[in-house]
Design brief:
The structure is a single chain. Helices cover 4% and strands 46% of the residues. By secondary structure, it is mainly beta. Strand 3 and strand 4 form a beta hairpin. Bound molecules: FE2/S2 (inorganic) cluster. FE2/S2 (inorganic) cluster binds next to loops.
Length: 125
């Protein structure tokens, strides 16, 4: 199980080496998520239109190792944008991946930029 998680390393914008062109902004649901593949990783990308921001994180939920976070509901926890896993509702900060309702390890988050109507996700590898 841990091997799956080892693929996902939170990436800060200053460590980005590759801006991966994921898709057009129109390919993502408004105020929802979709899954994008990069190399052997599944990345959940969220168009948080309500607050005018985009987020990306690992698609795998560390609770039961299910590839589901892109189908989670996005919302707000005391001002922190978050995603709730659709299976058992564990919630994670979209800003830094922190598990907001428990003591699981943080999930990996990735920078997102929008250029000419396209969504790019930043990776360090
Ligand atoms: S698998 Fe995500 S909360 Fe259980």
């Amino acid at each position: 199980m841990e091997e799956v998680l080892e693929k996902y390393n939170a990436t800060k914008i200053e460590d980005v080496k590759v801006w991966f062109k994921a898709a057009s902004v129109n390919d993502f649901p408004v105020d929802g998520g979709a899954c994008v593949k990069y190399k052997d990783k599944q990345i959940a990308v969220f168009n948080f239109a309500r607050i005018g921001k985009w987020y990306a994180c690992q698609n795998v939920c560390p609770h039961k190792m299910e590839m589901v976070l892109s189908r989670g509901m996005i919302g707000d926890d005391k001002g922190v944008p978050k995603v709730a896993c659709p299976l058992h509702k564990k919630t994670f900060s979209l800003e830094n991946g922190e598990n907001l309702n428990g003591d699981m390890d943080a999930i990996a988050t990735y920078p997102v930029k929008i250029e000419e109507e396209n969504v790019y996700i930043g990776f360090s590898d």
